[in-house]
């Protein structure tokens, strides 16, 4: 191994002191071709360094080589990125396979003329963006963390993910996402953000940076200068951020500044146009005013600037061969995932050879790349201990994940105390398959509830909606699991059709918390911020009352609920006095006429007196009489269908309690 670092006393046990002279010596020994190769992190298909099953796939997908080994030797790569769809990481995880792959490609890199260890990267944000899943520890994601308000949980989750990534040989994580999600219509960030509040995003982001880097895994704050206020996905288009300079500094840039102040290793660029910072129309990834003038010079960041994937539409505003060249000229160090490896590599090589990019500019980025590898101990030991995978998904790790997820579930609305779910009622659990209604129904059934499930497609068809309505007619109440229903008209139609049945309807939003904005009249609303199984399990515990919900909205639901809103279960048991409160709520909702309200409340006051005296027989008798009164009022039109149904269900539950 090359002696290019020494251990330093820092807050980070995994950080090494960088010796500038030794790194400069390595740069001087490298050929131009080797230096250019260090700039690139690419994906390659395959489960092993020389996987024969993916040779044609790699060649046909412009990897420039048949396998990892050939790509490393041919292009002198700085790193690789693992995905599930490239079969580098399986689902479920085969930890031994990933560990062996990582060690195998590091062997190849360390066997080159100038041995330089590889960045081995992935996107392990937690929640909806996680490449390493079960049996590893799975977390519900950033916005769920935001709902807990806990920097301790933020650091713990990053430490656990960092430990498990490191055991797989993954030394660079493209996380945390520190975009401030101020736009409910954001199609690409959403629950990947901690919050709409820049202070909360900064606090939780810094905690995760420290957590990852304490385990020797490079953290990468993304997406600079802030992707939180877009309604276009930069994978498929070019978003424009219209914030003025004051807003950018007070909102979007604040979490990046905090990360820089706490020693973040890398920052990933966004393929977004920000006219207040650069009026050229170029995305930040290709903008020298944003990457060099702002990030390097004004904010003083001297770590790695990593582009977002160069294959995304938002980056392709110039010809393909110009994208990596312009990114490097703008100030980027690491060129991530070009769609055509050979084209990108030779475009940069040609630009240096022609003098368009100076050797000095190239050496600056190569130096930073090598310094980052030294800082995280890769020159000392780039390998992962095969036995370290035994810690993946440990009981301790899994318990932290379950506890944190329990704390994140946010109860937003709970009319008529429908939650916790009444074990005496029959429940239809329905919704799009992405909302996991069957999984939830099975969990509730295992806990003793009488449930039936029905899954629709992601955008329910008219026939599926009709089926759900038919099933709801035979249930006492309905739970609908939605998935980004605020942007899905068909899911909205499903909820509205179920509301028309006059059965109580509870919505569980399994991704965006904003869904309630499009059906505010639902009787109950809970949000989980993600659909991972760990979130569904926590939701089931909240639904049955095993867990009292403590989450607070980390965002505003426009015109409905404020940032910080969240309710728990009141310590009030079902009683005649409580049913009187439901009568009042139903009156406010137009379900009961005023004369009927008075008659019902008089009857319930009498029941309450018998309850106080513990006269069981009289309580039950008068509750049976109350049901007859409900029927008469319903027949006369004084009580609507929904009000009649809810009050009879609650009365039956109270009778059962006294019997």
Task: Describe the model.
With 659 residues, the protein is an alpha/beta fold. It folds into three domains: 5-89 and 108-278 and 289-388, Glycoside hydrolase, family 3, N-terminal domain (TIM Barrel); 409-543, Rossmann fold; 576-658. Helices cover 43% and strands 11% of the residues. The chain is built from 23 helices and 18 strands. The strands form four sheets. Strands 11-10-9-8-5-4-3-12 form an eight-stranded parallel sheet. Strands 13-18-17-16-14-15 form a six-stranded mixed sheet, sandwiched between helices. Strands 1-2 form a two-stranded antiparallel sheet. Helix 2 (32-38) crosses helix 14 (359-375).
**Radius of gyration from CA coordinates:** 29 Å
At CATH's second level, what is the architecture of the largest domain? Alpha-Beta Barrel
Strand content: 5-15%
Instruction: Name the CATH superfamily classification of the largest domain.
Output: Glycoside hydrolase, family 3, N-terminal domain
The rounded distance between the terminal residues' Cα atoms is 77 Å
* Biggest sheet overview: 8 strands, parallel
Structural class determined from secondary elements: alpha/beta
Q: Spatial order of the strands in the main sheet?
A: 11-10-9-8-5-4-3-12
Helical content band: 40-55%
The residue ranges in which pLDDT falls below 50 over 5 or more consecutive positions are 1-13
Oligomer: single chain
**What's the count of strands?**
18
The average pLDDT value, as a whole number, equals 95
């Amino acid at each position: 191994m090359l002696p290019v670092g020494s251990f330093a006393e820092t807050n980070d046990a995994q950080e090494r002191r960088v010796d500038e002279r030794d790194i400069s010596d390595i740069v001087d020994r490298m050929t131009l071709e080797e230096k250019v190769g260090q700039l690139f992190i690419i994906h390659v298909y395959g489960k092993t360094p020389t996987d024969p099953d993916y040779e044609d796939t790699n060649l046909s997908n412009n990897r420039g080589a048949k396998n990892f080994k050939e790509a490393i030797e041919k292009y002198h790569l700085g790193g690789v990125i693992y995905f599930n769809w490239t079969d580098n990481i399986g689902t479920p995880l085969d930890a031994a396979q990933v560990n062996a792959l990582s060690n195998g490609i590091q062997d190849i890199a360390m066997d080159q003329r100038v041995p330089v260890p590889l960045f081995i990267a992935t996107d392990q944000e937690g929640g909806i963006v996680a490449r390493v899943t079960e049996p590893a520890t799975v977390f519900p994601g950033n916005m769920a963390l935001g709902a807990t308000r806990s920097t301790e949980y933020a650091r713990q989750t990053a430490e656990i993910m960092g430990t498990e990534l490191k055991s797989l040989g993954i030394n660079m994580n493209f996380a945390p996402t520190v975009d401030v999600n101020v736009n409910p219509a954001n199609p690409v960030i959403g629950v990947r953000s901690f919050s709409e509040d820049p202070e909360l995003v900064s606090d939780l982001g810094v905690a995760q940076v420290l957590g990852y880097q304490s385990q020797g895994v490079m953290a990468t704050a993304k997406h600079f200068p802030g992707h939180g206020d877009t309604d276009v996905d930069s994978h498929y288009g070019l978003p424009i951020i219209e914030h003025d300079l004051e807003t950018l500094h007070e909102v979007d840039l604040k979490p990046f500044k905090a990360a820089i102040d706490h020693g973040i290793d890398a920052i990933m660029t966004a393929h977004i146009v920000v006219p207040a910072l650069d009026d050229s129309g170029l995305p930040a990834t290709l903008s020298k005013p944003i990457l060099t003038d702002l990030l390097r010079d004004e904010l003083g960041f001297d770590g790695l600037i990593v582009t977002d994937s160069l294959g995304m539409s938002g980056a392709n505003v110039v010809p393909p061969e110009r994208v990596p060249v312009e990114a490097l000229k703008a100030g980027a160090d690491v060129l991530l995932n070009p769609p055509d490896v050979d084209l990108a590599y030779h475009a940069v090589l040609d630009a240096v050879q022609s003098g368009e990019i100076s050797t000095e500019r190239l050496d600056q980025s190569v130096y930073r790349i090598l310094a980052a590898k030294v800082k995280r101990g890769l020159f000392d030991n780039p390998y992962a201990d095969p036995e370290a995978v035994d810690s993946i998904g440990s009981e301790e790790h899994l318990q932290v994940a379950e506890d944190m997820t329990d704390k994140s579930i946010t109860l937003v609305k709970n009319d008529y105390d429908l939650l916790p779910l009444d074990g005496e009622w029959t429940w239809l659990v329905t919704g799009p398959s992405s909302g996991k209604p069957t999984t939830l129904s099975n969990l509730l059934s295992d806990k003793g509830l009488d449930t039936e499930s029905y899954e629709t497609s992601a955008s329910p068809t008219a026939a599926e909606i009709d089926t759900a309505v038919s099933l709801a007619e035979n249930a006492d109440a309905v739970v609908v699991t939605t998935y980004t229903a605020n942007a899905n008209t068909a899911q909205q139609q499903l909820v509205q059709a179920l509301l028309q049945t006059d059965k109580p309807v509870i919505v569980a939003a399994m991704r965006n918390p904003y869904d309630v904005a499009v059906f505010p009249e639902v009787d109950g609303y809970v949000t989980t911020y993600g659909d991972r199984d760990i979130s569904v399990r926590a939701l089931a515990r909240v639904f049955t009352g095993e867990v009292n919900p403590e989450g607070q909205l980390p965002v505003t639901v426009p015109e409905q609920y404020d940032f910080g809103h969240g309710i728990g279960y009141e310590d009030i048991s079902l009683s005649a006095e409580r049913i009187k409160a439901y009568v009042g709520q139903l009156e406010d909702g137009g379900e009961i006429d005023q004369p009927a309200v008075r008659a019902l409340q008089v009857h319930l006051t009498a029941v309450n007196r018998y309850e106080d005296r513990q006269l069981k027989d009289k309580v039950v008798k008068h509750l049976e009489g109350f049901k007859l009164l409900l029927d008469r009022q319903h027949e006369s039109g004084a009580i609507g269908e929904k009000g009649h149904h809810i009050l009879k269900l609650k009365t039956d539950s109270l009778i059962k309690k006294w019997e």
